[in-house]
Amino acid sequence: MEKIVIITGGSRGIGAATARLAAQQGYSVCVNYRQNREVANKVTEELKELGSTAISVAANIAIESDVIRLFNTVDERLGKLTALVNNAGILEPQMRVEQMDSDRLNRVFATNVIGGFLCAREAIKRMSTKHGGVGGAIVNVSSGAARLGSPGEYVDYAASKGAIDTLTIGLAQEVADEGIRVNAVRPGFIDTEIHASGGEPNRIERIKEFIPLKRGGKAVEVARAILWLLSSEASYTTGSFIDVTGGK
Predict the structure, then answer these.
(1) Contact, 213 vs 247, CB < 8 A?
(2) 202-211, pLDDT tens digit by residue?
(3) Which CATH number belongs to the domain containing residue 180 in this structure?
(4) Which of 44, 150, 182, 206 could form a cystine bridge with 145, CB 3.0-4.6 A?
(5) Catalytic residue among 27, 154, 157, 236
(6) What residues make up the domain containing 80?
């Protein structure tokens, strides 16, 4: 059976690393991105050089019509979906809760939570044996922040990832007998561009001494956990979490 995966937020960081590893493991890959077409196309070309059938599709997962278009495009150009990596997420500048306004909260939750739900919904419609599918796997990219809370920095982001943890647990049980496994990884302190979005691009350097492994993680280290959960090697694993947080 052909393996076809959508990776949301697949043009950079953990998403791009996951796309490259998926291509190496024989997946046809849809690289979803929100704005930067040039970067997404560059990743797609890398995947093709690795022998993958790959496309890039612009879609803001916080917008329902964009999500539907994304999945329909994959139907038309790649075929029957077998895997989803719910990776896309945003981070706002560091601040305390009493400084946050509703616009910020709506932005964070629209992408990090509602977007994840919408993508999971569309994947289930295609993969569930209840709907004529042949099964598949979903991996949600949560965060170690869901456990730690990110006080003084990103409590809203942490809360949104806590919601993704709950989605993972509930959805895994909901679709377990329909051929779909649902798991999550919780990255933490990974050296990607997301820290610049929070206003501190060198955050890893500041906090690495508080991490038991005394370093930041690499995006590919998260990608390896994601690909294992997608694979048949994890065939009896659902509703589970892998923390990739250096022991924190």
Answers:
(1) yes
(2) 777 777 788 8
(3) 3.40.50.720
(4) 150
(5) 157
(6) 4-244
